[in-house]
Amino acid sequence: MEQRNIRSNIDSTIHTSDTSDRDSWKSMFERFYVDMGALLEKEGRLIKVELSEKFTEVKAASTTLVIGATLLLVGVFALAATTVILLALVMDLWIAASIVTIALLVVGGTLLSASLTKLEGKRLSPRRSVEALGEITTTLKERVHEFTKH
Fold first, then answer.
1. Over the stretch 93-122, which tens digit does the pLDDT of each residue have?
2. Half-sphere exposure of residue 116, counting CA atoms within 13 Å on the CB side?
3. Which domain holds residue 136?
């Protein structure tokens, strides 16, 4: 009889220990998922803020670019007309106009190409958020690997 009581106590202790371990693991996983959800939500907000900042930068640069290009275009028209008039004094008008047109096309094409190259070089992606999400993913993989080892 005494042996049966001892065995019953041992079984009860083991069962209670298993249950508390499972509850501990369960609560740890629940906390983990809640924390990860909160972290991902914050990262999502950070991405939105970064994209908004990048959009504001591009918008400001584009506005200045359009205003500057418009003023420059008006000046180029005036300069082109003046150059055609001056060249027409020493050659036929159509030849003078052709020379000025070709020169403007070459210069304009070169400037446009350079501007597009500069704009392509801009990093407009939310770099910090992407890096942070990469770190989170790596950490998650490590944690899951640690949990599965035990």
1. 999 999 999 998 999 899 988 888 887 766
2. 6
3. 2-149
